Amino acid sequence: MSGVKIKICGIRDRAALDAAMEARADYVGLVFYAPSPRAVSPREAAQLAELSGDQIDRVGLFVDAGDAEIEQAVQAGRLGALQLHGSETPERAAQLRSRFGLPVWKAIAVSGPGDIRRAHDYAGAVDLALFDAKTPKGTLPGGMGLSFDWSLLTSYRGPLPWGLAGGINPDNVADAVLVTGARLVDVSSGVESGTGVKSPEKIAAFARAVRGA
């Protein structure tokens, strides 16, 4: 499975950041969504950016955020990409990509085949579709450890590069990649010892599982 990109999302402190870099993850995710237990402030993002420098790419996660909020986060975290996890339309995604000149990832909440097909709507507007499990109404849009039927992706040949999120962890990520053919895996709660608390051991185990299956 060489070549599968790894993103560790919900990084909040130096220990988690160091663990992600030691595991040679390709990306860390910084959550700019206040209701999330993994949220960071612009000040905290700036500190993490200072610590990591050019050693790893930082992706900012947003949920229906305004331009000013995103601009502040981009500057503070020196972000390399924007991940949209709300109800952002293709038009909104394209606007943000144009304004900030950064790659845009769009999370697609999946519970059935029709949701997979929604990724086609974002062709030309975003750079990557991230298939994630649909969460219950009224809950957070991600980071809850839920997964979907990975077989929905076995024959997917969409117009966009794509990644897999939702319910993956060190124990099942190898199977997830083998079943779906994902070229990027995005993990958050699956490498935690408690809500919002990253486990360096689980981060290392996750990376080993991706690379060594």
Description:
This protein has 213 residues and is of the alpha/beta class. Helix content is 32%, strand content 22%. The protein has a single domain, classed as Aldolase class I (TIM Barrel, Alpha-Beta Barrel). The chain has helices at 14-22, 42-52, 67-77, 90-100, 113-117, 173-180, 200-212, and strands spanning 5-9, 27-31, 57-62, 81-84, 104-110, 128-133, 162-165, 184-187, 192-194, 197-198. Helix 4 (90-100) links the parallel strand 4 and strand 5 (104-110). The chain is globular and about 40 Å long. Keywords: Amino-acid biosynthesis, Aromatic amino acid biosynthesis, Isomerase, Tryptophan biosynthesis. GO terms for molecular function: phosphoribosylanthranilate isomerase activity. Belongs to the TrpF family.
Concise structural overview:
The protein is of the alpha/beta class and 213 residues long. It contains seven helices and ten strands.
